[in-house]
Design goal:
The structure holds 2 protein chains of 2 kinds. By secondary structure, chain A is α+β, with helices and mostly antiparallel strands. Chain A contains 4 helices and 12 strands; from the N terminus they run ααααββββββββββββ. In chain A, the strands form 2 sheets. A 6-stranded antiparallel β-barrel of chain A has the order 1-2-5-4-3-12. In chain A, strands 6-7-8-11-10-9 form a 6-stranded antiparallel β-barrel. In chain A, β7 and β8 form a beta hairpin. The longest helix of chain A is centred in the first third of the chain and has 38 residues, at 60-97. In chain B, 72% of the residues lie in helices and 0% in strands. Chain B has helices spanning 7-22, 36-47, 54-68, 74-93, 98-122, 132-157. In chain B, α3 (54-68) crosses α4 and α4 runs antiparallel to α5 (98-122). Chain B is mainly alpha-helical. The chains are: A alpha+beta, B mainly alpha. At the A-B interface, α1, α2, β1 and β7 of A face α1, α3 and α4 of B.
């Protein structure tokens, strides 16, 4: 028995080494997700049944109240949108005066989360849109509050999203107040990220809003990412330790938005 | 024929464990979710160490690695060590009262989580230790029905 266990430990060590230092198992993992997604759909049944029961047991009065509240919210948002349209037009005119390139416009596609990685250290979700909906690797994903992550794998009818709080995710950002650029990294905690390599001499303060800087070309410019929550510096360290709270509800949002980038004027995907 | 008569319940339980593992749980609750594959592995190794021994631990470990998208071999190593502990003590454990077995699972889950934390710290992955006692308590609660089911198969095949 001990001999068997010894060989098993040896096998495990070999597998760990091969998985870390070679890409041999990558394609296998890709194919495997074709098996796990149907299982994720089955696992989602309790949630769907809960939602169905919730919907069918809600009284008409409550639905009417909810509808009225949503209608009010819609009117307020439409009012805000009118103001934003005016600002966008003014911004465009100013950019033309400065001979600066036009900003790209984005259109969005609504999608739903159908699976969550069972590993608490692995911040990935599966969504119900795939290659059939023209989803592509590297595509940004938002929720109503801010940037959620990016697409890492695309299959026919579903895709995998790497969230911005995943340990392997890094995102170029800038401080909204003064344009200071940096990189925010995930920490495997849904409520915390870290701003890396920020010198103690730069102008950054608690409460500063961070937005995507667009550097690297993967994420569009100006989407809200998070708020600076805490700044500290350990003695002897060259850089500051900056904690950022993400704005997106990474562990709660069920409906997300896939961002498609369009040249100004091309509205073929708009309103989807 | 008799030797394979537990194969179907084992497969059904593993499938059930995978589905339970995949049920979406949000945020911090995820850290408190028991490792159902580990519990199923412990149950079968505990009652049938001759049929479901180290090889079974390795296979379930590979399943866990693929399911959790962890480094291949990570769960294999942990499950092997856990399986070896269970096999080593199974003769004593078989005579224990259910309450004692619940305590044993509580301790095993703590050992497994500490092993995970140790391996994570070697790989520069953040380690969260606060959730471990809660996870061990919840796992012990799930152990009770699982133990009863596997014990029934044990009594039938004894």
């Amino acid at each position: 028995m001990v001999r068997k266990a010894f060989f098993a430990v040896l096998l495990a060590t070999l597998l760990i080494t091969l998985d870390i230092y070679t890409p041999w198992f990558e394609s296998f993992r890709g194919h495997l997700s074709k098996v796990t997604v149907p299982l994720q759909l089955i696992s989602n049944f309790p949630n769907r049944i809960g939602a169905w029961v919730d919907l069918n047991t809600t009284s008409r009065t409550m639905l009417e109240q909810k509808n009225a509240s949503l209608e009010n919210e819609r009117l307020i948002l439409l009012g805000k949108l009118q103001r934003k349209a005016e600002l966008a037009a003014e911004n465009l005119r100013l950019r033309q005066l400065l001979n600066a390139s036009e900003l790209l416009m984005d259109s969005v596609l609504v999608t739903e989360v159908i699976g969550i990685s069972p590993n608490p250290l692995n911040h990935r979700v599966t969504i119900d849109r795939g290659a059939d909906d023209a989803v592509y690797v590297g595509q940004p994903v938002l929720d109503a509050e801010g940037l959620m992550g990016q697409i890492t794998h695309v299959y026919k009818n579903y895709s995998q999203v790497l969230l911005i709080t995943d340990l392997n995710h890094a995102l170029p950002v800038q401080v909204l107040r003064n344009g200071l650029r940096s990189i925010v990294e995930g920490t495997s905690d849904y409520h915390e990220m870290r701003l890396r390599f920020v010198s103690p001499t730069v102008d950054i303060a608690e409460g500063d809003q961070l937005v995507s800087s667009g550097l690297g070309g993967r994420f569009p410019v100006g989407y809200p990412v998070g708020t600076v929550a805490e700044i500290s510096q350990r003695p002897g360290e060259k850089f500051m330790d900056i904690k950022v709270i993400p704005l997106a509800k990474l562990d709660r949002s069920k409906h997300l938005l896939l961002v498609f980038r369009l040249q100004d004027g091309d509205q073929s995907r708009g309103g989807k | 024929m008799k030797k394979n008569s537990t194969a179907q319940p084992v497969l059904a339980m593993l499938l059930g464990a995978i589905i339970l593992q995949l049920i979406p749980v949000s945020g911090e609750w995820l850290a408190w979710k028991p490792n159902f594959l580990l519990l199923v592995m412990i149950a079968w190794v505990l009652y049938f160490p001759d049929r479901y021994g180290i090889e079974f631990s390795v296979v379930v470990g590979i399943c866990a690695d693929l399911l959790f998208s962890s480094t291949l071999g990570y769960h294999v190593l942990i499950f092997t060590i856990c399986g070896l502990i269970v096999i080593f003590f199974h003769r004593v454990i078989a005579y224990l009262h259910m309450g004692h077995r619940v305590v044993l699972v509580f301790l095993l889950v703590i050992v497994v989580e500490l092993l995970k934390a140790m391996m994570n710290s070697l790989g520069d992955i953040p380690v969260f230790l606060k959730h471990i006692p809660y996870l061990a308590v919840i796992s012990s609660l799930f152990w009770v029905p699982l133990d009863k089911v596997v014990n029934r198969f044990y009594l039938r095949h004894k």
